[in-house]
Each structure stands twice: as structure tokens, then as C-alpha cells.
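@channel anyone free to eyeball this complex?
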Amino acid sequence: MEHSIQLDHITLGVCYYPEHWPETLWEDDLIRMKEHGIEVIRIAEFAWNLFEPTQGNFTFAFFDRFMEAVRRQEMKVIFCTPTATPPAWLTEAYPEVLNVDLEGHPVYHGMRRHYNYNSPVYRRFTETIVEKLAEHYGSHPNIIGWQIDNELNCECDVFYSEADHRAFREYLKNKYQMLDNLNESLGMTFWNQTYTDWNQVYLPRKNYHNSPNPHLALEEKKFFSQSAVSYCKLQSDILRRYLKNGQFITTNGHFGHLDYQELMDQSLDFLCYDSYPDFAFDLGADPKRPGNLNDRKWSWSLIKTRSISSNFGIMEQQSGANGWTTRMEAPAPKPGQMRLWTMQSIAHGADFISYFRWRTCWIGTEIYWHGLNDYSNEPNRRLEELKAIYRDIRVMGEIAGAKYQAKIAVVKDYPNEWDGEHDRWHGPLSNFSDDGWFRATQLTHTPCDFLYLWQKSSLQELAAYDVLIYPHATILTEETAGLLKKYVEQGGTLVFGARTGYKDEYGRCPMRPMAGYAGELCGVRIADYTFLGPYDEKQTAVWNGKEIDAPFFNDVLEVTAPEAKVEASFTSNYYQGSPALVSRKIGRGTAYYFGAGFSMETAKAFLTELGIGAPYSDCLTIPPQCELAVRKKGGQEYFFVLNYKEYPCTVELKQPMKDILSGRERSGAQELPPYGVMVLSR
Ligand code: GAL
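replying in thread with the prediction:
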């Protein structure tokens, strides 16, 4: 099932906290929001105490008063379940609801996400508060949808309370049934880890070098994910019983140890993301270093959001400088950047943009985290910029529902991401190659998607792409390899990189020729392999007469199938002359095995040699400092050109196009101002 926000026009919203401001200000705030084009507010995600000030005593008076103002002003609302911040009366009376860290220390009350998903007590309190809210507000005409919790797995994505250890035992019992089966599957005979009673089983706990049994550590991540999914479902099941008028259910952000395909499938209508491009500034690095994409790197997170929810919302869009009491992240957005970042989100498929937050908070941990209004509530340049955004949004409304266009996807899956956290070859290699593919596709203006493989992935989803890059599928099951083979047979191009296919679903390395099922598919065997250490020379390979980078890790290949073809060989090191890249035609398509990682230069070479780079160069010439994104609805294509730099540039339209923002026809050379945005259609 496709998960997608359904809106008939691009819509603006804002995060609002009535509990932070005098009631006399509410109405004025709502009126001013509307003047700035804001149609939706998100409320209540941290307000449990206002509904249940003491255990079992429920009151809705405060939010009822606020919702009256909302009704008068005809504002739409996304209402939240307040479970990210359990009240002090609860954590004090029931300390078992608190999370515990790897070393066994409880996480005390005072911040947020200090609870654990598996505590039966916390689940009971959650059920009650969600039910009470759903009963009371579920049919409210101004509420268009619900947000569950806030940023599941943000702040913390590991959980070691007593309840988690117990639930982990149950999870494993369910999966393995017999202890012998568990011992065998997770390799417990190594270092005498064999269990003889279920009570000996724990989530991996603190040990020397933080070096747990890797198979148990992989189960741990699957379990963390399942815990969050089931906690979210607990809430969505209750909400669904009460919601009226087509109200949707969503949550915000994506974080570690959570399988979002599963989360969508079980609970949600679509995903919202929280976009703070300032986080992408690599403050330690030289911002002028070539290839340092800074805030543009945030598009990578938006690509991931789109892989979960084809059209999505931004529940929190950055509107000012970041900072907590302990975190002063980066400069305030320069004039034009808030608009640029808004358009970055829309370019990638967001149809709803809600800013964080209406006014900079005057109390608490986030007093340095700036919103649209300053503490003073006086006019400022960010509010002026919002007015300009509102003007743009009005003329762009029709773009809602248009789908992002990409013919190439980087394939991903959660087990490999989680296994890579301990596998010090695979994890860093994957990050390196992600960076390579991101920068190569960005700088050549080749729109790119992610495709997450999971148990419900279909051939049809894969076949939507001409080329799939599965950079380092260390864990590759027979089933996944079968699906990929069908994709190639029907005409697809598949590219694997080094370290593929040598682990099974438990993260074990079974006795068989490497690269396992990928080797069978591509007609290769890995004869030798090595990490390229600091003393190794730069490795390259020659492909179609051109030298390409073959960095980070090398798989030295041998051809095992008669129709497999050596495309490139290594140029140095003790395996100089051995195959580095092998291709094999299968049905109407081709599978490639490349025995290295992908730097930006390597990825660019693949885009060129496979003939899939720069697919819009026939109609647009765009300088590298700009991102190109394309959305399409019906026969209409929308081109977003985003200038991330503080200086202007020239974009060349090789055919006449409509400039949506000005309403004019344009062709030829066009100047794009600093942080400027162009939205064209044809
Ligand atoms: C998000 C969170 C918000 C706010 C914001 C700024 O992660 O959802 O509640 O804390 O960051 O810190």
C-alpha cells in the first residue's frame, strides 16, 4: 500500500504551544498566523499534565478553551498524543517506566523520551491517556489529523530497562521457540555463550570493548524496532476506533533502530519529517571544501522520507537559529534560506510545511531555539520571509500530489544498516559510498531515490527504476537475491559493490563461495579481499579505457560464468590486473559486481558509463551549486532549481518553460539570485 499525504494544495502550518503563553495572546497569535498563510497548527505533544494533572484525574478544560479559539478562527489542528514526556507523578510512582542505559543506569525524569516502550505499566497509562483524548477530541471538526508521540526513537534508540530484557526474551522465544535453536542460530557456542535457561537471556549488556555477539546484537536492533512499532500501533489502534471525518494518523521524523516500512504498514497513513538543514553543516570541516554540500546534504534525509511516504509533510521546518541550553548548532538562517529550505522540502515531495515554531520559547531547555517570532513578538525578517513564501505557495498550489521523478535508486535495508553498526568494515564503507552516490547524483543533476527492501517489496516497485545501486548488501538472503534476479531479467540494471552477500540473515558468514547469492547472480567469485589501509596506494581500475577510483575496500574477483564479462581490472597492489568489475547479462538486463566502494568520482563514472547521468540536460543547463528536483502530475512536469550559495548563478533554459512563481514564459539564460529558487513547468 502506498503511503502518502493527501492534500489538494501545498499547505502551511506551524507548531504552537498554548501552554507556553498567556491565554490572552492565543487569539492574536491565531489571527496573525492566518495573515501569514498558516492554515494548520500542531499542538499538545508534550502536554500530558494538562490533561491528567494527577493519576486518573482527567480534565480537558485548558485545551477545550484553546480549541474554542481555534474554532472561532477556523484554524485546522493536528492533535498529538503526549506520550513523549510522561509526567513526574508517573515516573516517581512507577520508576519501572523509565528507560535504562547500556550500563544499567536509569534515565531520570527531566528531559524527554525517558520512558521505555515495553513497560506494561507505561503501556497501560498510554492506553488510558490516548483513549481519553481520542474520546474527547476524536470527532472535533477542526482536527484534521493526529501525531503519535513525538519523534519515536529520537534522543535515544536503545532501551535496557527490566521490561525490555523481559520483552526481548519473549521476542526470541516467539521467533526461535527452542533454546537450542536460538543457541545454534546466534552462534552461542562461541566464547561459551550458550544459554541453558531462558532466564539467562538478556539484551546485550555492557562488556569490554562494547563488542557483543554480533548475531544477538542484530536481533537486539530488530527487537528495538519491533518495540517502537508495537508501541505506536497500541496508540493508532485506539485512535482509529474514535476518529471521524477522515482524520489521518502520522508521526514525525526518522531515527535509528526503527523499520519505517513496518511502522507505516502497521500504524500510519503517511510520515512527516522534521527538517533542520542547519544540522547538515559540517561545522568541523571547511565549508568551502569542494564537495561539502552543507545544508544541501539535508536532501539525503528528504530522500529517505520519500522512500517511506511518497508525498509527505514537514511537521517541523527550521525557521530560525538552532540551540538548546547545551547545543548551539549553527548560524541563523540567512535572508532567503528559510524560503530555500522550504522549497527544498517541497521539491522532494512535501505537500505540507509546518514551521518550528510560532514563537521562540521564553522558558526551558529550548530558549535558544528560534521560531518565526522572536521573544519580543515584534515584526522581524523571518516573518517577512514567511509572507514571501506564502505568495509562492499560493501560485504553486497545484503541485500538491505531484510525484518526485527518479530513474535510479540506491537500495537499502534495515538489517544491513544495523549489522553495519558493529561491522567496522561494512558500516563505514556503506557511509562512504552513500556520500559518494549522494554527491555524484546531486552534482550531475541526476534525481535519485532510495528503495528500502523489506518482506513486502514487490517486483513492480523495483521495476519502476532503470538502475538500482545496492552498494554493500553484506546480508543478502536467497529470497532477496531471487527478487533482484527477476528485476534484472525484466530489463533492469543492478550494481553491487564490495562486501556483498557473504552474510546470512543472522549476520553469520556461512561456508560457501563469496559473494554468496550475489556471486551466483553476477557470475563472480571473490578470490581475495582487503580493506585499503592508510599505507595502501590509491587504488584505481580501468573501465572502457578510463581510470576510475576503486577506493576503501577491494574484493578481488574471478569470473565463474561463461557469459560474465570483465569490465575493469585493478591497477595496483598485489592483485594488480585482477578483475575489479564484472558484468553479466541476465534476460533483458545486466548485473554488475564492483569490488570496491563508491567515491563521488566512482559513482559519477558509473552514471556516465551506464548512460543514466544528467537526464534533463536536454532542457536545462544548471551549475553544480544548484540542486535539480523534478515532480510530475498528469502530463505536467515541475522543475525545482535551488541555489544553495550566497552568490548568484545562471541557469540556461534550452526550451521555453513556464516560470510558476512569476507566471511568465522563460527561455535562455536566467539569473538565479543568492539562495534563489526557480520553479518551472513544461
Ligand atoms: C525536534 C523536536 C521538537 C524540538 C525541535 C528543536 O527534534 O521534535 O520538539 O525539540 O527538535 O529542538
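from a first look: Residues 628 and 641 are 5 Å apart (CA to CA).
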